[in-house]
Write a structure and sequence with these properties.
Radius of gyration: 20 Å
Distance between the termini: 18 Å
CATH class: Mainly Alpha
CATH topology: Growth Hormone, Chain: A
Structural class: mainly alpha
CATH architecture: Up-down Bundle
Oligomer: single chain
Shape: globular
Strand content: under 5%
Number of strands: 0
C-alpha cells in the first residue's frame, strides 16, 4: 500500500498544481467565466472518453503497464499547459491530460486486487488519503508559483513542475511497483465489437447502472463549485491564486485526516451506504454555509498569522463551510468506490471502476460550463445553490436503491 500511496500522491500533486491559477489564466484568454468553464471541462472530457478504456486495458495487460503509459502521457500534457499561449492550446493540453488520466481508476483496481472485501474501504481510504495529501501539496505549491493576483496568474512554472512530478511518477511505477493482476487472471483479447458489448452488459446491470447515476449526480454537484471556487473567491473576497492555494491546503489536510483515520472505520461499523449518505448531507450543508455566510468576516482576534493566512483565518464561516464539505467528500469518495468494486469480479474490476470513473468525469464535464453560466448570469453563489439542488436526488437515489442490509451486494466473486 505504500507504493500506491506514493503513486497517487504524486499523481494528485501533478493534477492539482495548476488548479489555483488555471481558471484565472483561462479567463484571461477571453470569453468570460463560461469560456473558462469549458477550458477546465476539457480535462473531464478526456477522462470521460479514456477512463473506461484504460480500465479495460488494465484488465487485459495488467495494471503496471497502463499506469506507466498514463504517467508518460501526463508529462507531455503538462508541458503543453506550461507553454500554452491561447485558449485553443490551453484547451488541447488540458484535453490531452484528461485522455492520459487513467491513473486513479486503475489505482483503485490495484487496491481492489490486493484487498479483501472486508478491508477494501480501508484500502480505498489509504489511497484517498494519498490523493488528499497530493491535493494539499500541489495547490499550495501551485498557488505560490502561479502568481499573487488574478492579473499575474501564470501556468508556466506550475506546468513545468507538474511535468517533473509526472516524470518522477513514471520512475516510481517502473522501478518500485509490483503487478497486482497476474497473467492467469487477465481477460483475453477480443474484437472491438465484443469489447463494446461487454462494456454495455456490465454497465446495464441494475446495481452498476444505479451506481453510475449516483456517480454522475455527485460529481456534477461537487464539480460545479470545485472548478468555480477560484472565481468565487476572486469575485466575493477579491482573492487570487495564493489565497486559493491556502484554501486547497486546508481542504486537503482535512480530507486526508478524515479519509485516513475515520472513513474506513465508519464503513466497517455501519456499512458503506450510511457513511455515503452522511457525506452527502455534510457536503450540502457546507455549500449552504458558504453561500449564505462565506463572505462574512470574523472579529480581528480570529486572524492568525499574516498575509493570505490571516485573510483565510479571518473568515470563520468560510473555514467552517469548507471543513464540512471536505468532511462530506472524505466520507463519500472511498466508500462509494469500495461499494462499486464489490459488484465486479477480479477480471472486470478495471472495467467497472473505469465505467464508474467515467460517470464521475461526465459530471465533471458538464458541471464547469453549467457552473460558469450560472456564475455569469445569476451571480457567484448560484453554482453553490445549484450543487445543493443536485445533491437532493443523489441522496434519495442512494437510500432508495441501496438502503437496508448494510447496503452490501449479495455476492462477490472472490480471488
Amino acid at each position: 500500500m505504500f507504493i500506491i500511496f506514493a503513486l497517487v500522491l504524486l499523481g494528485a500533486m501533478g493534477f492539482s498544481i495548476v488548479l489555483p491559477s488555471i481558471m484565472f489564466v483561462a479567463e484571461d484568454f477571453g470569453g468570460g467565466e463560461a469560456m473558462a468553464g469549458w477550458i477546465v471541462a476539457s480535462y473531464a472530457i478526456g477522462q470521460l472518453i479514456a477512463t473506461p478504456i484504460w480500465g479495460r486495458l488494465s484488465d487485459r495487460y495488467g495494471r503496471k503497464l497502463v499506469l506507466a503509459l498514463c504517467a508518460a502521457s501526463t508529462m507531455i500534457a503538462f508541458l503543453g499547459l506550461a507553454f500554452a499561449y491561447d485558449a485553443l492550446t490551453l484547451f488541447v493540453s488540458r484535453l490531452v491530460g484528461g485522455l492520459a488520466g487513467g491513473l486513479f481508476s486503475v489505482s483503485q483496481a490495484w487496491v481492489a486486487d490486493t484487498t479483501t472485501p472486508k478491508n477494501r474501504a480501508k484500502g480505498m481510504g489509504i489511497m484517498g488519503a494519498g490523493i488528499s495529501l497530493g491535493f494539499i501539496l500541489g495547490p499550495f505549491v501551485g498557488g505560490i508559483l502561479g502568481g499573487e493576483t488574478a492579473d499575474t496568474a501564470t501556468l508556466l512554472q506550475p506546468g513545468l513542475l507538474g511535468a517533473a512530478l509526472a516524470g518522477l511518477l513514471l520512475v516510481v511505477i517502473l522501478l518500485f511497483m509490483r503487478e497486482s493482476l497476474p497473467p492467469e487472471k487477465r481477460v483475453a483479447s477480443q474484437p472491438l465489437g465484443a469489447e463494446l458489448r461487454q462494456w454495455g452488459e456490465v454497465g446495464a446491470r441494475p446495481a452498476v447502472k444505479r451506481l453510475l447515476v449516483l456517480g454522475l449526480l455527485w460529481m456534477t454537484a461537487a464539480g460545479m463549485f470545485e472548478v468555480m471556487m477560484p472565481l468565487w473567491v476572486g469575485d466575493t473576497l477579491g482573492w487570487g491564486p495564493r489565497h486559493v492555494g491556502v484554501q486547497f491546503l486546508f481542504l486537503g489536510l482535512w480530507v486526508a485526516v478524515v479519509q485516513g483515520l475515520i472513513a474506513g472505520r465508519l464503513s466497517i461499523r455501519f456499512g458503506e451506504v450510511p457513511v455515503i449518505a452522511a457525506g452527502i448531507v455534510l457536503y450540502a450543508v457546507g455549500m449552504l454555509l458558504l453561500a449564505w455566510f462565506g463572505a462574512v468576516a470574523g472579529p480581528q482576534w480570529m486572524r492568525i498569522g499574516t498575509g493570505v493566512l490571516a485573510d483565510f483565518t479571518g473568515q470563520p464561516w468560510l473555514v467552517l463551510g469548507l471543513g464540512l464539505l471536505a468532511s462530506g467528500s472524505a466520507l463519500l469518495v472511498p466508500n462509494i468506490s469500495s461499494l462499486v468494486s464489490k459488484y465486479a469480479s477480479v477480471t472486470e474490476r478495471g472495467t467497472v471502476l473505469g465505467l464508474f470513473q467515467s460517470s464521475n468525469w461526465l459530471g465533471r464535464t458538464i458541471s464547469p460550463p453549467i457552473g460558469g453560466m450560472l456564475f455569469q448570469s445569476e451571480g457567484a453563489n448560484a453554482p453553490l445553490f445549484g450543487s445543493v439542488v443536485i445533491l437532493v436526488p443523489c441522496l434519495a437515489g442512494l437510500l432508495v436503491w441501496f438502503g437496508g442490509s448494510r447496503a452490501q451486494p449479495h455476492k462477490e466473486v472472490e480471488e
